[in-house]
Amino acid sequence: MNRALIIGAVLSGAFALAALISFVWVPYDVTGVDIANRLKAPSLGHLFGTDHFGRDIFSMIMVGARTSIAVAVVAVGIGMLIGIPLGLAAAARKGSLLDELIMRGNDLVFAFPSLLIAIMITAVFGASAVNAIVAIGIFNIPVFARLVRGAALSLWTKDYVLAARVSGKGAARISFEHILPNVTNLLIVQGTIQFSLGILAEAGLSYVGLGAQPPTPSWGRMLAESQTMFSFAPHLAIFPGLAILLTVLGLNLMGDGLRDVLDPRLRRARR
Amino acid sequence: MKFMTKLSTVSALAMTVASGALAAGDMTVALQLEPPHLDPTSAAAGAIDSVLYANVFEGLTRFTSDGSIIPGLAKSWEISEDGLTYTFMLAEGVTFHDGTTMDAEDVKFSLDRARAEDSANAQKALYAGITSVDVVDPLTVKLTLAEPNGSMLFNLAWGDAVIVAPESIEGIKQQPVGTGAFKFGSWVQGDSITLEKNDAYWGTPAVLDNVTFKFISDPSAAFAAVMAEDVDVFSGYPAPENVPQFEADARFQVLIVDTEGETILSTNNKMPPFDNVMVRKAMSHAIDRQAIIDGAMFGLGTPIGTHFAPHHPDYVDLTAGSNYDPELAKKMLAEAGYADGFKTTLKLPPPSYARRGGEIIAAQLREVGIEAEISNLEWAQWLEQVFKGKDFGLTIVSHTEPMDIGIYARPDYYFQYDKPEFQALNTSLEAEADPAKRKELAVAMQKMIAEDAVNGYLFQLAVPTIAKAGVVGLWESAPTQATDMTAVHWKE
After folding, report:
1. Residues B262, B398: Cα–Cα separation, whole Å
2. Residue A118's pLDDT is what?
3. Could you tell me the pLDDT band of residue B352, with boundaries at 50, 70 and 90?
4. CB-based contact A52 B356, cutoff 8 Å
5. Does B411 lie at the interface with A, CB-CB under 8 angstroms?
6. At residue B173, does pLDDT exceed 90?
7. How confident is the model at residue B21 (pLDDT cuts 50, 70, 90)?
């Protein structure tokens, strides 16, 4: 078995599990405040301590995982849902005006620094988790479109695709029946990487106050709020920081591991 | 990691903000907010006064640190028996920084400009009672009032009534020319304003040669700047949670400065359901003031029960009338027909008292069934949406003008309290000169707005000023927004 894949899956699985559990149970309510118990150091009662409003940081990390994962899932989903058909279409009509339009459009989106555009979108439409999702999602589109187009181009020259064409199948049908299944492993790997980037982007946006709005807990905002208190209550920054670090690390390891497992060429090379 | 790069950017920013005072007679003072322009007579922005009041511009009278009114450009005055005529004797030999003489004509120009029909003065209403300003001789000015006004000397001490010259009024927003102990040096927008000592000052000259005001609004950048000793003074330090650290550090002294800032949960009195007094009263019982003071201000601030400064002699403590009692709040909401609560908006400007206080208040309101949806706004957006547009349910803001209960007599003021009885009381107060009667009126007004729970009264804002141990002469309370540097110096 692949060690990176296992470590990665365990790490990111732990956070996914925490997020899932938080729907039905958290140790403490994260929307209420309990000023008398603020800034408590980690203890048995509060595993990760409490923040400046007396909220339990462990519970906030759990619910924050939900925010992060939800944003990343939907953002990657948007990217895949729009990016993949675009990439397939561009590959099917290689060299045509459509191909040019799609790919140059992608270049256009790529040309802007993603965080900057995200800030612009949230500035125009207001700061909220939904707008953060849209902003991050838009930047996932060209990633998937390019990936799919590149992979699909080489597949179009394959004999089985030729056979399908000879038997009278249209471009759209070939794309979905023959091309797409053969790029799935690439998509899974890239999806995992994009997922970790999405979590980072969400943390970055909420750090500057443009992500999920209070009282919804968010790792990035927890970090931002902890800054002036870091010197006397370091647990405020350490735990959300670790949460981001471990999730992103886990997802990246998992992505690497998946690539090793799924890519036939790499698999053959190892044997 | 993303957050690590953010942190290092912040400290890098703090570095660039830094430039310690090398020459012995210089001082760097950090403030949170940069002024939009430099004319205190045509804008409400307190940041303008924070830099210029008493330093560059002076009025006929002026505030001292303890809130009393002392002579400014007017060395003395006489008030007629009927209280309708004020005769001011001006100080001799006063010149503006551009060399022109300050005389009665300038006083007339300044006050006429402030009370003019098309005046942009933010406190125009304070000077509306003046019917004429007459030049008796170059050093004597006579003010005639429509009716007696017990607060006229106080009103004239505001930054909005400083004396400006017709010769330099054109460029005042970029190049302010006043009579103060400091003259304007330069303004690096987004960074700092430098004032230079006025060698031709008519009164007691300033001790310092140069004063640089640096603008640092980010709390963590502020912390870094003070800790690295990049600034000598931070007036209005934005993160109260760091105060114990500075107190424990021998390099610094901490002044907890009482301000005139009544910090309130402003409520849109015209917007249902807040037009129902029962709902407003219920909210006042749903809020735990002490939790807000502890949670948002780390203990700094005095609870208030009405819109009046606790250090004012006419203050009455009405906090008991709106004590924290969530059960009572729920009952009152039910009586008002909102047993299931309701939804509203809570729009928060940037200061931490608002952002943090807002989260605490939203949690407390949720306890009684009121869902307040938080949106964080920048100051410009806040002014646009809340203050001008009146598009809000609730907001939190500190009203830092001194003795400003009169804003409740303006029906079109942003929280839109419209009660003729209150307006009548305010008119009598403005006309009354007898201290005992004034007190009676002021108490009645305080009680009326507390009774009507116009806004949620939270606490009197106290802001920490962090200074290096060797700094002497800073204001220990702030009767008006000002950073009076005229008497500040380094310990020998």
Report:
1. 5
2. 79
3. confident
4. yes
5. no
6. yes
7. very low
Q: A-chain residues within 8 Å CB-CB of B286?
A: none
Closest Cα in chain B, distance from residue A144 (Å): 23
Q: Is B359's CB within 8 Å of A33's CB? A: yes
Query: pLDDT value at position B235?
Result: 94
pLDDT, tens digit, for every residue of B235-257? Answer: 999 999 999 999 999 999 999 99
Pick from B2, B291, B367: CB nearest A35: B291
Are the CB atoms for B185 and B209 separated by under 8 Å? no
pLDDT tens readout for residues B22-49: 345 899 999 999 999 999 998 877 899 9
For B71-91, the pLDDT digits (tens) are 999 999 999 998 899 999 999
Task: Note whether B332 and B281 are within 8 A (CB).
Answer: yes
Q: What are phi and psi of B246, to 5 degrees?
A: -70, -35
| A209 interaction partners in chain B (CB closer than 8 Å) | 376
Cα–Cα distance measured from residue B432 to residue B441, given in angstroms and rounded to the nearest whole number: 9
- Structural contact between residues B184 and B195, judged by C-beta atoms closer than 8 angstroms: yes
**Among the partner residues A33, A52, A127, nearest to B363 by beta-carbon distance:** A33
Local structure of B453: helix, strand or coil: coil
Which CATH number, 3.40.50.2300, 3.30.9.10, 3.20.20.100, 1.10.3720.10, labels domain A3-19+60-263? Answer: 1.10.3720.10
Substitution target from A227, A229, A231 for chain B, most B beta carbons within 10 A: A227
pLDDT beyond 70 at B122: yes
Q: Do B245 and A232 touch (CB under 8 A)?
A: yes
Instruction: Say what the pLDDT of residue B123 is.
Output: 86
Q: Which positions in chain A touch B244 (Cβ < 8 Å)?
A: 232
Length of chain A: 271
- Residue ranges of domains in chain A: 3-19+60-263
Give the pLDDT of residue B9. Answer: 41
* pLDDT > 60? residue B330: yes
The tokens describing A158, both together, are: 């394959």
Separation of alpha carbons B103 and B101, rounded Å: 6
Strand B370-376 to strand B233-234: parallel, antiparallel, or no bridges (unpaired)?
Answer: unpaired
Q: Give the residue from B415, B276, B393 showing the smallest Cα distance to B338.
A: B276
DSSP assignment of A28-70: S-SSS--GGGTTPPS-SSSTT-B-TTS-BHHHHHHHHHHHHHH
pLDDT of B317 over the 50 cut: yes
CATH architecture of B261-461: Roll (3.10)
Distance of CA B345 to the CA centre of its chain: 25
SS3 A93: coil
State how far residue A24 is from chain B, nearest Cα, in angstroms.
20
- What are the two backbone dihedrals, phi and then psi, of residue B483, each rounded to the nearest 5 degrees? -125, 80
Using beta carbons and an 8 Å cutoff, which residues of A are at the interface with B? 31-33, 35, 38, 52-54, 126-127, 200, 203-204, 207, 209, 213-215, 220, 223, 227-229, 231-232, 241, 244-245
Query: What is the interface pTM, i.e. ipTM, of the complex?
Result: 0.79
Residue B22: its pLDDT value, please?
A: 38
Q: Which residues of B touch A35 (CB under 8 A)?
A: 290-291, 294-295, 360
Check residue A267 and give its pLDDT: 59
Tokens of B307: 């819109």
Most distant CA atoms of chain B, gap in Å? 73
The pTM of this model reads 0.82
Distance CA A268, CA A24 (A): 45
Contacts of B241 (CB under 8 A, 6+ apart): A52, A228, A229, A232, B298
Query: Could you tell me which residues come within 8 angstroms of residue A246 by beta carbon, excluding any fewer than 6 positions away?
Result: A11, A15
Q: Chain B residue with minimal CA distance to A207? A: B3
Distances (CA, A) of B119 to B113, B160, B358: 6, 11, 35
Ranges of residues in chain A with a pLDDT under 50 are 271
Lowest mean pLDDT among A209-213, B212-216, B340-344, B385-389: A209-213
